What we know:
TIM Barrel
Amino acid sequence: MQQNRHHNARALIIESKRDIASEMERIGVSPEGIRIMAKKGVFRVVLLEQVSLKQATIIKQEMLSKGGDAAVNARVASLTGDFTDILLMGTISQLRRASEGLMRQPFGLRQIAEEILEAINAQEPSTGRILQLGRHALTLGNKTYIMGILNTTPDSFSDGGTHMTVDAAVEHAWRLVEEGADIIDIGGESTRPGSAPTPLAEEIRRVVPVIEELGKDFPAPISVDTYKSEVAEAALAAGAHMINDISGLATDPRLGEVVAEAKVPIVLMHMKGRPKDMQENPEYESVVSEVAGFLRASVARAKEYGILSENVLIDPGIGFGKTCAHNLELLRRLKELRSLGYPILIGTSRKSFIGRTLGLPVEDRVEGTSATVALAIASGVDIVRVHDVKYMARVARMSDAIVRGGNVCEG
Length: 411
C-alpha cells in the first residue's frame, strides 16, 4: 500500500520578477524558460483614476482579451455618468499585452497605456541607480541610506535650541556621521505644526556658517531643508549638495531654477497647507491618491525647470497636513508610491502620530520610530530621515539584511 505523501504546498509571496526568477532557478528551470515565464508569475493590480466611460469600455475589453480583467463602476454597463476609476487585474505579461493593444486605439488610450507600463515597470526593484551628491555617489537599491537631522533652530519640535551655535551644530554633524549617517540634512527653519516662517536673512545665518565650517573634507554629503530659493542658493554656494523642499516646488517659483542650474538632487515632498495651519483638520477623499497626484505634479514642475530625472527624489510628507490615520495609511500603502518611478525618502522620526498611537512623549518614541523605519524599508524606501542615527542605522542594517538579502551574516 502506497503511503500518502505530503508535498509541502504553500502560497509564495511573489512581489517582483526577481522573486519568481529566483524560485525558478532553485528548481532548475532553464534560463530561456525563466525569461519567458517570469513575467507570467507576477500579478499586479493597477488603479486608473477618472477614465471616461468610452475609454473604460475599451480597456476592459482589451484586458479580458488578454486573460486579465478590469473592475469598473456599475454605470459603465449602462453608459450613465461621465467617468470611472478602474482596477486592472492581471499578470505583468497580460498588462503589457493589453497596453500594447491600447497603444493602437484612439480616444487618448495611448497615454493611458504609457501610464500603465510606467506603473508596472516602476514596481520592479531598481538597483544600480546612482544619486550623485558632489563627490559622493550613493548607489540606490543595495542598501537604505540614513539621513541624519541637524536642526539649527530654537523651536523645532524635537531638538529645538540644542544646536544653535555653529560649534554645537558642527560637533553634532560629526557625531551623526560617526553613528552611521550617510547624509546630513541641515534645517534653519522649524516646520513643526503651527510654526511661523523664519525671516530669510536669519535662516541663511543659521545654515550657511555651519556648511562652511564643515568644509570640503566633511565625509558625508550635505542636504539643506528649505523651500526658499535664496537660502538654497547661498547653501549650495557654501558647499551643500542637495535641497530638501517640503513644498514640492509649490512655494518659491525660483527654487526650481536654482536647483536646475546647480545640477543637484532635490527632494520633493507633499504638504497640505503650510506649517502654520497644516494640522488644522486636514481632510482627504483618498490620502494616497492625492499625495501621489501632488508628487506627480511636483515631478512635472521639476522637469519643466530643467531638473534632471536622476536628480529627483520624492517624499510623501508624513506629518505634514495629515492626521494620525492618514499617516498610518500612507505607511501601510507606501509601496504604491513606487509606481511614480522615483527614489523615496521618508521622515517619521519622533513624530506626533507615533506619540498618539503609543501614548508617548517626543523623547520616548525611539521604538515607534524603529517600527516605521523597518516597515518603510520593507516597502522599498531608499532614504530614511531620522534623529536617532545610531539606533536607526542598526534598524536599517537589520531590515536590509532581511529585505535585500545578500551574505551579511557574521560567524
